[in-house]
């Protein structure tokens, strides 16, 4: 039993300190629950599919794959990625691990290192403009009635 959301379109992230704009695509999202021997397992959220991140200013780009768990065996939350320098066809860094856990980097120099440990990252509160300062079609303003009723 599952439900899937296929994300279309792209996002833009701006690093103001470096005047860099990154265009990225999103993985699909799935709500999963397996029924085995008439017993329902604990439901989980899963990401799946291919994504990309690119910066036109620097020319760096990344290809990311979110791997869905096979029906039998396998692990949940797996992700792999390759990061490319401008105009290079071979990645200078490969990443693998769990998107909600630890990811490891393997560099073309032979160095291996922890890329990121998401469990050790601090939680940072979002900074969002007040609803009255938002345009009609900004997300929180547009969806305020739905959010209110869901709460």
UniProtKB/TrEMBL annotation:
One of its GO terms (cellular component) is cytosol. GO terms for molecular function: sterol binding. Signal peptide: none annotated. It holds the Pfam family Oxysterol_BP. It comes from the Eukaryota. This is OSBL9 protein. It comes from Grallaria varia (variegated antpitta).
């Amino acid at each position: 039993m599952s439900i899937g959301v296929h994300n279309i379109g792209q996002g833009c992230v701006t690093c103001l300190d470096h005047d860099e704009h990154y265009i990225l695509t999103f993985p699909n999202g799935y709500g999963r629950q397996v029924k085995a021997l008439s017993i329902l397992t604990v439901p989980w959220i899963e990401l799946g599919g291919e994504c990309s991140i690119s910066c036109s200013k620097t020319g760096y780009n990344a290809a990311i794959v979110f791997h869905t768990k096979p029906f039998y065996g396998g692990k949940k939350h797996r992700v792999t990625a390759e990061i490319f320098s401008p105009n290079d066809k071979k990645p200078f860094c490969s990443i693998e691990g769990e998107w909600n856990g630890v990811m490891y980097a393997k560099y073309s120099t032979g160095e291996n290192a922890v890329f990121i440990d998401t469990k050790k990252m601090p939680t940072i509160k979002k900074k969002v403009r007040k609803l009255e300062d938002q345009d009609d079609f900004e997300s929180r303003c547009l969806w305020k009635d739905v959010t209110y009723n869901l709460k």
